[in-house]
Model the fold of this input.
Amino acid sequence: MPGLLSARGFGYGERMKATTVCPGVWRLSADLSDLLFEGLWPIPNGVSLSSYLVRGEKTALIDGVCGWDGVPETLFAQLETLGIPLESIDYVVINHMEPDHSGWLEAFRRIRPQFQILTSERSVPLLKAFFGITDQIRTVKDGDTLDLGNGRVLTFAEIPNVHWPETIATFDTQSGTLFPCDAFGSFGALGEAPYDDQLSPEQLAFFEKEAVRYYANIVAAFSGPTGKAIDKVEKLLGDKVKIIAPGHGIVWRQNPAKILSDYRRYVSYQKNPAKAEVSVIWGSMYGNTEKALDAVVIGLSEMGVHVKTHRVPDTSIGDLLASVWTSTGVVLGMPSYEFKMFPPLAAALDELFKKKVHNRLAFRFGSFGWCGGAQNELDDLLAHHKPGWQFLDPVEFQGAPRETDLANLRSQGRALAKAVLQSVTAGTWTQLLQHQRPLDGTCEDLD
Ligand code: FEO
Done:
């Protein structure tokens, strides 16, 4: 059966134990692995899906957990271990309609048709389109509340486009727990230690890298709305937020300020200089562009920036996105291929620009054979996407690089690193000087 999250392999995910987030709030979860998230993104360290049960006199389930065929047995089994019968669930809050969170809903409705769904107005057509559900839906807007009794009141906030337009966040006013679904999430399966207070500094550092990859792959294109959502959370709730319990990744109950500040930083990397890092993305057919690579890397390293090299097509676009998102500089080692960009680099750049990786300092070099063309196609792509990348003059060479080329490459590496360091230190973009450059090799008209 085709999976909701992936077209490769199959699995229900590993069923975890239900755990107590705080009195009256439980986390139900599944760890998934051996799949492509959204059918697209490799997740070598898996991913956790989390659902939350909140009890006053009434019981609400916030978002869902299911195996990735939509069967909610994982969720049902964990409810059973808590001794909470399915029949006691009065409300289901759907923060976000993407099927990794909502895919269990149709099966649940067949078993327990009585529950009421609370969700945003924009979810209504999606509930119909995905699951044929048209009744027992209560739509909520900013500031609406649901009183569960015993002093437990849920309040709702619209956070559109984090990650789909219909997304809301739910806040339990009694415990101060924010349930933001995709926001503040990460990749990485958490196993039986999902809380920040259970993780060592090394584990937290590991999951921070997973959070960057998750952000770059899933959230980056929505950085503007994500920044607005963070502003909204801080303005509306301020220090009332004691716990952040997302739909993926760590539950932050010791230091929720950390994930807020991490996410604010990831958002800022779209418009402002990021880290003092340069991502070098390169490909080579016969080793000539590869021969030039060392000279550029030496030039970069001489200036003290951190250099991350990625060969394509060997490196996944998911990893490239994560690397470039935290980098202030980008180097493209890209030969010409049949009058165009080397195809795996063209594919990577197209995805980077679609994910709105904007405002980077960049440099391109590469070999051409009988004819160039890579630079022309790159110029067209930049004109189309307008990502705001500033480029140093490219260095191109026919066949193998000569000594003068290698000297130029090293010099451009140093120039890029210098501009990166200046930009990071100043917190604003250094303007790169560009010269009138000659076009790369002249192409005969073969038509
Ligand atoms: Fe985790 Fe946008 O779904």
Q: What stands out?
A: The longest helix spans residues 403-426.
